[in-house]
Amino acid sequence: MLRYWLAAVRRLAASALVTGALCAAAMTAVLVLGDGAPWRGAAPRSLAVGAAVALAFAAVLSTANVVGAARTARRYGLALGPEAVALPCVREVRVSGITDRTAFQLTDGVRHAVERDPVLRLDEVTAFGHGKLDLAVRGPSDTKVAVRIRVTTGPEGTTAVVEARPAATYKRLDAAACWSVARLLERRVEEALRAEAGGGAEAGDGGRVRP
User: Fold this and answer.
1) Rounded CA gap, 90 and 24, in Å?
2) Cα-to-chain-centroid distance, residue 156
3) If 0-12 CB within 10 Å is exposed, 13-18 middle and 19+ buried, where does residue 54 land?
4) Residue 14 to residue 7: CA distance in whole angstroms
């Protein structure tokens, strides 16, 4: 939990600094232009206030995000870690032993597995084709998550990459919504691919996180 909180603070650092700088600039303008204080006297006070605002901004938002992320992790039976902060969240599944199946057929099987999932709330399929599946999924707290699934297959095995990101592109933190959706989809994708392999496949890395 602490590692997740620290990762969240780091992700918010830039936004917090900008917020603090704006507050410091605004206070300096008020002191100099409004009260007639000298620049030399106004600057230290304004910088102190700006630093306090930046720290409060990062601490409050990070703590609120941790609470939501912990609730999400418990709800889906997942172990919360710092990797849940990264956006987009990318998971990879590798399966061997699939023969006589095209990428389109495998992607279709994945689509059906996702549509039948009792936990995921699928809004719509936005793209579907040869090795390509794009989805809009409702995550925790009704957060809309945009998902891209890419499936490739060949003699050396089959690889599926799941990428989840907030539908709202401005979001810096999402209380682990994308991470939880990606983890659930990772399971469904692996199950679908194992079924295509006749139950004899082995996942190459169990769904590793890609940098």
Assistant:
1) 38
2) 30
3) buried
4) 13
d(CA 2, CA 58): 14
Q: Can you give the pTM of this predicted structure? A: 0.77
CA distance 119 to 106: 22
pLDDT digits (tens, 9 = 90+) for 117-157: 888 888 999 999 999 999 999 876 678 899 999 999 988 88
Omega into 88 within 30° of 0, i.e. cis? yes
- Both tokens of 34, joined, read 């409004």
Output the six-digit token pair for 18: 């900008």
Contact 185, 91 (CB under 8 A): yes
* H helix or E strand, kind and range, residue 82: none
Distance between CA atoms of 185 and 139, rounded to whole angstroms? Answer: 12
Angstrom distance (rounded) from CA 63 to CA 51: 18
One-letter amino acid for residue 125 of the chain? V
Tokens of 11: 């992700």
Secondary structure class of 49 (helix, strand, coil): helix
